[in-house]
Design a protein that fits this description.
The complex is a heterodimer of chains A (290) and B (534).
Chain A lengths: L2 H19 L6 E4 L4 H14 L7 E6 L5 H13 L2 E5 L6 H24 L3 E3 L16 E4 L27 E4 L7 H11 L10 E10 L2 E5 L8 E6 L12 E2 L5 H10 L17 H7 L4
Parallel strand pairs in A: 1-2, 1-4, 2-3, 4-6
Antiparallel strand pairs in A: 5-6, 7-8, 7-9, 9-10
Helix pairs in contact in A: 1-2, 5-6
Chain B lengths: L4 E8 L5 H11 L5 H13 L15 H6 L6 E7 L2 E7 L7 H10 L2 E7 L6 H12 L4 E7 L12 H15 L5 E6 L8 H18 L5 E10 L2 E8 L10 E5 L3 E4 L8 E2 L12 E3 L4 E12 L7 E5 L2 E8 L3 E10 L10 E6 L5 E9 L12 E5 L6 H11 L5 E4 H6 L9 H20 L4 E4 L5 H11 L3 E7 L2 H6 L9 H8 L9 E4 L5 H14 L4
Parallel strand pairs in B: 1-3, 1-4, 4-5, 5-6, 19-21, 19-22, 20-21, 22-23
Antiparallel strand pairs in B: 2-3, 7-8, 7-12, 8-11, 9-10, 9-12, 13-16, 13-18, 14-15, 14-17, 15-16, 17-18
Classes of the chains: A alpha/beta (290), B alpha/beta (534).
Bound molecules: guanosine-5'-triphosphate (GTP) and magnesium ion (MG).
Chain lengths: 290, 534
């Protein structure tokens, strides 16, 4: 493995161990989104505690609107690890409920689940290179009692001396993949032979061609909509009504890596939700999103 | 890509152009995606600019864009010529200095941006001293906004030259490997030179990096009857079967049982490795009393936790120079091995991180109510006392106080002449001042001919064991030959300075006649370490 990637791997393992070995495991959870970053995170957890089993639980916040391929994959993973599933009782519809959908089914669900299970520390697979406000966040990020993030009140943090403690009215979000890029994730998936949801690879699919901010956005069609069959793959996976595909012929990891080395746009442009307001990711984070 | 990750920070006073420079570096290395560029472009228009403000590629928070100032560090990554770079764009505003300090603690190299028109400001100096505290060895000074030096397309070389001199004067106090580059981030001028320098320093950094292995143990766990140890590695690499490492604090050798690539090991010996123990191929210091310098992010509190390696210990006693813990830690001094040379302080109640402590010297030196050391450089005028003394001075993170006989003569001792009595009195007073300072915990460096044998003996007797006498020795013949100050060949002064009374035993002799400055310096440091005086 490349030296720099090995470094990122060890750093992530350190962060996982620092947090888990110094806290009550019952208070810790790792969010599992079924996506590529979550798959890498899960792999790192296995590696961090090998030959023993992962001592903490994983949790999937379900919305009911994930791709069928994701649910299939989740079944498989559930046999391997201690996986909890939580779904907000409101059961909103992304086509009808707009911004409320993300807020309730994701942000509120996330906070509700933490309360429900009594978790104080939550791992996530977010990376700083994903978005400009994420680039400002600590690896171990303190949230107040409402789960809010305050960019002006971040804890000083010096790698590799992480401070993994919380107090009564704070909780922690921990991001071991903070310093990884999208390309690093793929190189690592290749090196370590990590299994991922198959729709990350190119496949034929009927899509609705639209645009968002003057860029093409290929969406899953609703009934009766005009579609076209194209070779596509997904760069990110989430709720299918909010996730766009990209045109691609990349059938294996090497081809994906090659594609990404030349790609013009970042993976964010395949997400519908990010464009409802300027700085919307930051606002969502302030409200308690990952 | 084969290389390791190179961390560098961009620091300097508020608005001097840090974010703009980083933005431009990202653009020049092809590291900005189209949609990110479009976003920064539209933010520039919102701010009333009719061109791209490269700084907006970094300033991503809503408040930052509104106030046009950086609040917290922005992390960016880019690959260039087979190396992964991790850039930390620091805030310059005084209120956010702590955010700069945490970035500096992780950095291998720093770009210090100075507005060419404004010049050096107090905040510039503060950032510089933080870089020095965290042992950053490589420094690029970017003189920014050179386009504003004239109204035309050319730059005013006079202003640039003047700034360069001012900066060089200040950098004399430090031992950075540095270079100064005038730039213009808005029009992309000389950014390529900055990138070239970063590459060079990256190369130098890894070239000079020693092959240290240090790991701290988290815990052990059993699996199928076998015992596994979980480690935190400072230098991330694989551990090979049969590799031998020293276990601290037990000071025993252990042998690795199988190859490991995830920081989990088994050992062949039947020895317990406990939480906080360390494995290393170099020597570590082990103590619960640590001499430190702490950079505070927040006020200290009554109950604090200290974190180093895999240990979280209670602080049982805290003074400005000494931390006492309820557990021993395995560490190094920051100037020996940076990665193992600092710890953090956490408030027990709020769990906030309050400060970062840099480890400064062997704890053997530490006594309660500790006195400062006096490094007394004696020897003939022109023998090289000041040069040697300044080299030593630069090695300190907390700078010792300098007492140079010539300076003292111009001020406190201006009433004295060059008679034997006056010369005696001059030295006497210097020794008194040094004693006073040492008693208050300051380290003092004295440079003074101090030719009288009896007097030297008397002073040493009085200031023992805090005084280290260092004789800088060059023969009279050579001094006469290269007499630049004209001291040895004029009749007036020659008499009093020529007869340095040799004879009593000194702690360290630096022979400046036969050995080079560098050799002497290395010898001096080694001897001081042996005397546990550094
Ligand atoms: N003309 C000119 N303007 C510059 C140059 N570099 C930066 N500026 C301007 O100086 C202002 C401050 O630049 P920033 O890059 O935001 O400064 P900074 O040092 O990051 O500021 P803080 O992070 O808030 O301390 C902006 O308006 C820039 O457009 C330069 O080389 N030439
Ligand atoms: Mg800035």
């Amino acid at each position: 493995m490349d030296n720099y990637l090995k470094n990122l791997e060890y750093q992530a393992i350190d962060i996982i161990r620092d947090t888990v070995f110094n806290n009550d495991v019952e208070k810790i959870v790792a969010f599992y989104s079924i996506g590529k970053d979550s798959s890498v995170l899960l792999h790192l957890f296995k590696k961090a505690f090998y030959p023993n089993k992962i001592p903490i639980k994983f949790l999937h916040i379900d919305t009911g609107w994930k791709f069928p391929e994701m649910y299939e994959f989740r079944e498989k993973i559930a046999n391997e690890i201690d996986l909890l599933i939580f779904k907000h009782p409101a059961c909103l519809n992304p086509y009808k409920d707009g911004r409320n959908y993300t807020d309730i089914m994701k942000t509120q669900a996330l906070k509700m689940s933490q309360e429900h299970f009594g978790f104080k520390i939550a791992f996530g697979g977010a990376r700083r290179d994903e978005e400009k406000s994420r680039a400002k966040e600590r690896i171990i990020s303190i949230r107040d009692k409402n789960g809010y993030w305050n960019a002006r009140k971040q804890n000083p943090e010096i790698s590799p001396l992480y401070n993994p403690f919380y107090c009564n009215d704070t909780s922690l979000r921990v991001f071991p993949l903070s310093n990884w890029t999208e390309l690093d994730i793929w190189k690592y998936i290749k090196e370590e032979n990590i299994e991922i949801v198959p729709i990350y690879f190119s496949h034929k699919r009927k899509v609705k061609i639209t645009t968002q901010n003057n860029k093409e956005l290929l969406l899953i069609p609703q009934k009766g909509e005009k579609t076209e069959e194209l070779n596509v793959r997904f760069r990110t996976l989430g709720c299918y009504p909010l996730t766009g595909a990209v045109r691609s012929n990349a059938k294996n990891i090497d081809e994906i890596i090659k594609e990404l080395e030349e790609v013009q746009y970042s993976e964010r442009i395949t997400r519908v939700i990010d464009y409802d307001a300027k700085g919307s990711m930051e606002i969502k984070k302030q409200e308690g999103y990952f | 890509m084969s290389n390791n990750i190179f961390n560098f920070i961009c620091c300097g006073s508020v608005d001097d152009g840090k974010s703009s420079l980083i933005g431009q570096i990202l653009l020049n290395t092809n590291s900005v995606k189209q949609d990110v560029l479009e976003d920064a472009m539209s933010a520039s228009f919102d701010n009333g600019s009719d061109f791209l403000e490269p700084g907006l590629l970094l300033d991503g928070l809503l408040d930052e864009r509104k106030q046009q100032i950086t609040i917290d560090i922005a992390h960016r990554y880019f690959d260039y010529n087979n190396t992964r770079y991790h850039i930390y764009d620091c805030p310059g505003h005084e209120q956010y200095t702590k955010n700069m300090a945490i970035a500096a603690a992780e950095a291998n190299c720093a770009i210090l941006v100075i507005d060419v028109l404004k010049g050096i400001s107090p905040q510039t100096l503060k950032h510089l001293s933080i870089c020095a505290l965290f042992q950053i060895k490589y420094l690029i000074i970017a003189l920014s906004k050179c386009d504003l030096t004239t109204k035309s397309n050319t730059w005013d070389e006079n202003i640039i030259q003047k700034r360069k001199q001012e900066i060089e004067e200040i950098l004399k106090q430090y031992n950075f490997n540095y270079s100064i580059i005038p730039i213009d981030s808005i029009h992309n001028k000389n950014i390529d030179k900055v990138i070239e320098k970063i590459e060079e320093y990256n190369w130098l950094y890894f070239e000079s990096k020693k092959n240290n292995f240090i790991a701290h143990a988290y815990c052990s766990q059993f699996c199928n009857g076998e015992r596994y140890y979980y480690l935190k590695l400072l230098d991330k690499k694989e551990i090979k079967k049969d590799e031998k490492l020293k276990l601290f604090p037990l000071d025993k050798e252990v042998t690795i049982k199988c190859d490991s690539n995830n920081g989990t090991i088994q050992i062949q010996e039947d020895i317990d490795i406990e939480k906080g123990n360390a494995l290393a191929n170099v020597n570590l210091l082990v103590s619960n009393k640590i001499k430190h310098h702490t950079y505070w992010f927040d006020e200290p509190t009554n109950e604090m936790i200290f974190h180093h390696g895999t240990i979280f210990a209670n602080i049982t006693k805290y003074t400005q120079t000494l931390i006492e813990l309820d557990k021993a830690i395995c560490f190094n001094n920051i100037n020996d091995i940076k990665e193992n040379g600092f710890g953090i302080i956490i408030d027990k109640a709020s769990k906030k991180t309050l400060g970062v402590s840099v480890f400064l010297a062997n704890d053997n030196l530490i006594k309660v109510n500790q006195k400062g050391k006096i490094y007394w450089f004696s020897g003939l005028s022109g023998a090289g006392k000041t040069t040697q003394a300044m080299n030593l001075w630069r090695e300190f993170s907390i700078k010792p106080i300098l007492l140079d006989a010539d300076d003292v003569r111009k001020t406190i001792n201006s009433d004295l002449g060059y008679t034997k009595e006056d010369c005696y009195q001059n030295i006497e007073r210097i020794s008194q001042i040094a004693q006073l300072l040492s008693n208050q915990g300051f380290n003092v460096i004295v440079t003074c001919i101090s030719k009288f044998k009896e007097q030297r003996k008397e002073i040493k007797e009085r200031l023992k064991p805090n005084l280290i006498e260092i004789l800088v020795d060059k023969s009279l013949e050579t001094l006469k030959k290269n007499d630049t100050k004209g001291l040895y060949n004029s009749l007036g002064t020659c008499n009093m300075i020529q007869n340095y009374e040799y004879g009593n035993s000194v702690d360290i002799i630096l022979n400046t006649e036969e050995k080079t400055e560098k050799e002497n310096f290395e010898y001096l440091i080694a001897q001081l370490k042996k005397l546990e005086a550094f």
